[in-house]
Amino acid sequence: MSSIKHLARETVQALTPYLSARRIGGTGDVWLNANESPDCSEYQLDSSKLNRYPEFQPHSLITAYADYAAVKHSQVLSTRGADESIEILIRTFCEPSADSILICPPTYGMYAISAETCGVAIEEVALADNFDVDYQAVENSVTKVDSQVKLVFLCAPNNPTGNILDRQKLIALLQATKGKALIVADEAYIEFCPKLSQADLIAQYENLVITRTLSKAFALAAIRCGFTLAQESVIEMLSKVIAPYPVPAPVAQIATQALSKDGLAVMFERVKILNNNRQLLQDALQDIDCVTEIFQATGNFLLVRFKDSVKVFAAFAKNGIIMRDFANKPRLKNCIRITIGTEAEMQATLTTLNSL
């Protein structure tokens, strides 16, 4: 071991980092592996105050997002992407080497990575056979006498399976876990199915937290801007832990423009186009012989199970189409996640599959 590595915390020495799409990389012209938007808008920047530290929580940005999400301004915290929100929640509510988070795999990998980084244990309640949340099992884990679970992360729509939350079962879970744990609904993809958001429940349930991002439907993955929605008591606690200047001024400017009336109109049109492209892809996939299962279509992606995903993945790579391979994940054998792109990119995807 090097003279430096042994100085790191033991949990970090043993940690396997989250393999993001950018870390995995690939070679090609069609990038459908990171659930990014295929287009980008233009924004104007005012550079006259770049010599000054930014506001802790820029008023114009918080106001714009609160209005968009239909919550109170005091119920919004802006973070560096939803990933920072995940970490701040763990650092705020979980004692290292004592408390734990609960996740429902297969799901987004950063919940576990953030917990491991913070020295917090991870409990798992697998998704049900249909990949919906097993609400009763989650409740049992949180409410048992010796439970150390402080946070439950529920991704909805779930990445990568696309499953959504059952509202009435979520409400029952919130009621059962009141005073015991926070239920975190990760709504990174909610713009693609906005009627399924649980944001309106925040007013009634102090233990509900919702994380959001501008990376997907708003096509702003590069600026790293996310939001945490919760009652004021939760936001106050998170504000004690988050960095003093979490929102760079250029990020706040761009995000505020994206949340303007004109910016929202662009986002809504983008969602309409991508949802339509998703439907076209989904319909066409049903007639392709090498496809055995298509998972729920709720986000800007489709998880697809193939007869032989190794062969399919290789064919995509040969044609310069970069996808996300999930075949090595539990219960997702032969599965590949396809980001929804332009109509031309979807046609290139289908052309490759039809050639097999």
Automatic annotation (TrEMBL):
Q: Which pathway does this chain act in?
A: Amino-acid biosynthesis; L-histidine biosynthesis; L-histidine from 5-phospho-alpha-D-ribose 1-diphosphate: step 7/9
What are the N6-(pyridoxal phosphate)lysine sites (modified residues) in this protein?
A: 216
Its UniProt entry gives the catalysed reaction(s) as: L-histidinol phosphate + 2-oxoglutarate = 3-(imidazol-4-yl)-2-oxopropyl phosphate + L-glutamate
From which source organism is this entry?
A: Psychromonas ingrahamii (strain DSM 17664 / CCUG 51855 / 37)
Q: Cofactors per UniProt?
A: pyridoxal 5'-phosphate
Which InterPro entries does the UniProt record give? Aminotrans_II_pyridoxalP_BS (IPR001917), Aminotransferase_I/II_large (IPR004839), HisP_aminotrans (IPR005861), PyrdxlP-dep_Trfase (IPR015424), PyrdxlP-dep_Trfase_major (IPR015421), PyrdxlP-dep_Trfase_small (IPR015422)
Which taxonomic lineage does the organism of this UniProt entry have? Answer: Bacteria, Pseudomonadati, Pseudomonadota, Gammaproteobacteria, Alteromonadales
State how it assembles: Homodimer.
What biological-process GO terms show up in the record? L-histidine biosynthetic process
Q: Work out whether the entry's keyword set contains Transferase.
A: yes
CDD domains reported in the protein's UniProt record: AAT_like
Q: Enumerate the NCBIfam families for this protein.
A: hisC
Q: Which residues form the Aminotransferase class I/classII large domain?
A: 37-350
By its UniProt entry, which HAMAP family does this protein fall under? HisC_aminotrans_2 (MF_01023)
Q: Which gene encodes it?
A: hisC
Keywords, comma-separated and alphabetical: Amino-acid biosynthesis, Aminotransferase, Histidine biosynthesis, Pyridoxal phosphate, Transferase
Family the entry assigns:
Belongs to the class-II pyridoxal-phosphate-dependent aminotransferase family. Histidinol-phosphate aminotransferase subfamily.
Any one GO molecular function term: pyridoxal phosphate binding
What is the protein name given in its UniProt record? Histidinol-phosphate aminotransferase
EC number(s) given by UniProt: 2.6.1.9
